[in-house]
Specification:
The structure is a single chain. The protein is of the alpha/beta class. Strands 1, 2, 5, 6, 7, 8, 9, 10, 11, 14 and 15 form an 11-stranded mixed β-sheet that branches. It starts with a strand and ends with a strand.
């Protein structure tokens, strides 16, 4: 018999708030974390803005030992360790130095690219013939699984500890991988999430592709405009989100706080065929992913109360809405309420899915739907399919029972997860 899976812990390092309390307040109040970055101007970027979590030196000392901080130069690892450790503590789980690992707990924590600044530092030292000055942590900071390795050591997990990578779909995919492991009875709990580095060496490639907005450098908070007629491209961001998934029986046994239940989901690919490409989704694959998630969750399309979309603030936003209307067979007033977090924090790349999953779960738990900032002018193409009130501009206080969260990534890969309010 398949296990029921619930969420018992949350952690986040987001451009508009580090820590769950600060983050929830920010999304309820429509606070933007997008700022101007002078370094990007110095380097002649067209888009000189981005979303970056604010982490002080004092904050770092709460999560890393002096030895770990020596030579630490990977923003993704910093954000991932903060969010992952916070989620573990939020779940009421101890962090101890016992000799035996926790055999029932594992980690699936994804990333897209890790340790870019450390790589740059290493290249300069190697080219200068100073390889011995690299330090002993250059490998762990630059290998993709560095984030799960850091967290595995801090938390002492003895079950599966690994890293996944599927572009913008990474965080949502990690959650579903952890869900499946618990559901199959292979683990009692899994820390899942994802992180992303920030800065010019991560964001430069996107600037070169001319898919970032270049006319909002003097108005950074207005730049990210999902579902808006004036959307001009996605704003790059960074950070990390983390969730503790747990077997319901285990959670109840230890009296854990339960945020929500994971009913199921789907992951697929459009194969970069039939309109799908390295950067664009195959529409049929997206619709299949949505319908597959509903089938696995044993949910009727009419039961979806809310959608937290991928919705990056590009011309593809209207296409995403069209795919939702077709997959759910619901439109106009019958369509669920929909929002996008990217208006507040930009597109956090490999961290986007996990941060947005945290925001989705908070909405279910605390009976609100955050507003879509910078969407004063909804795209007319979208309004042909759904009514304006389905795109709330300000936070709504309402109970939501079932929420669908989607992520669609480069490489034509898709993931949809279905969350239910726990009662």
């Amino acid at each position: 018999m398949k296990k029921r899976v619930v969420i018992t812990g949350l952690g986040v390092a987001s451009p508009n708030g580090v820590g769950i309390e600060e983050f929830e307040s920010a999304i309820k109040n429509g606070k933007s974390g997008v700022t101007f970055h002078p370094k990007l101007k110095e380097l002649n970027f067209s888009c000189q803005i981005g979303g970056k979590p604010e982490v002080s030196e004092e904050k770092l000392k709460e999560y890393f030992t002096p030895l770990q901080l020596r030579g630490l130069n990977s923003s993704g690892i910093i954000y991932g360790v903060i969010s992952g450790t916070d989620a573990w503590r939020d779940a009421g789980l101890e962090i101890s130095d016992e000799k035996n690992p926790d055999w029932d707990s594992g980690i699936i924590f994804g990333t897209g690219i890790l340790g870019v600044d450390k790589f740059r530092e290493a290249i300069h030292l190697i080219d200068a013939g100073k390889t011995r000055r690299l330090g002993s942590t250059s490998v762990i900071q630059t290998m993709a699984s560095g984030i799960s390795a850091y967290l595995g050591g801090i938390l002492g997990c003895g079950n599966q500890v690994t890293t996944n990578s599927s572009a913008c779909t990474t965080g949502t995919e990690a959650l579903l991988m952890g869900f499946e492991r618990i559901q199959a009875g292979k683990a009692k709990r899994m820390l899942v999430g994802s992180c992303s580095d920030d800065g010019p060496y991560v964001w430069g490639g996107f600037d070169a592709m001319r898919i970032l907005p270049g006319k909002y450098n003097d108005r950074p908070k207005a730049a990210s405009r999902p579902m808006s007629a004036s959307a001009a491209g996605f704003v790059p961001g960074s950070g990390a989100g983390a969730l503790v998934l747990e077997d319901l029986e285990s959670a109840l046994e230890r009296g854990a706080k339960i945020y929500a239940e994971v009913l199921g989901g789907e992951v697929n690919s459009g194969g970069q065929r039939a309109g799908g490409s390295m950067t664009a989704a195959n529409d049929e694959a997206v619709q299949r992913c949505i319908r597959g998630a509903l089938k696995m969750a044993n949910i009727d399309p009419q039961q979806i109360d809310a959608i937290n979309g991928h919705l990056t603030a590009t011309t593809k936003d209207s296409v995403e809405i069209l795919n939702w209307t077709k997959a759910l067979q619901r439109e106009n007033k019958e369509f669920p309420v929909i929002n996008s977090l990217k208006g507040m924090i930009g597109h956090c790349l490999s961290a986007s899915g996990s941060i947005e999953c945290v925001a989705s779960v908070l909405q279910l738990k605390n009976d609100f739907i955050f507003g879509n900032i910078n969407c004063e002018d909804p795209d007319p193409e979208i309004l042909k399919m759904i009514t304006s009130e389905k795109i709330p501009r300000k936070t709504l206080q309402q109970e939501t029972k079932i929420l669908a969260k989607a992520s669609f990534g480069f490489g034509d890969v898709n993931a949809v997860v279905i969350f239910r309010k726990f009662a």
